[in-house]
Amino acid sequence: MLPAVSSWAGLKLPGVGAAMQSAIAANEVSGAVTVVVTKDRVLHLETHGLADIAKKEPMRPNTLFWIASMTKPVTGVAVLMLQDEGKLNVADPVSKYIPNLPTLRP
Asked: What does DSSP say about strands 31-37 and 42-52: parallel, antiparallel, or unpaired?
């Protein structure tokens, strides 16, 4: 089991922070918590921006988020797991895996 999040402060991958700051500057998000982990260790943990704009409260590693839909994040994780297992390549056209796709109509 991984140690508590608070013990991993300061671990940062290059480029992640700049990407999050760009999203904040473009008003796409007010803040973000980014974390990258392997099976046995945390490689990156960083916070950016605000958790509460009105209160000017900064984002923290333990900030709770209300998430309206989990379909896209769960699907994204599943797709990347399949790629890691060599069962799928995200660069392949969808029609490789669903051959009838070009003939399907709504």
From this structure: antiparallel
pLDDT tens sequence across 49-78: 999 999 999 999 999 988 788 898 899 999
Q: What residues are labeled active site?
A: 69
Burial degree of 35 (CB within 10 A; 0-12, 13-18, 19+): middle
Confidence label for 30 from pLDDT (cuts 50, 70 and 90): very high
Closest CA to 67 of 33, 41, 44, 90: 33
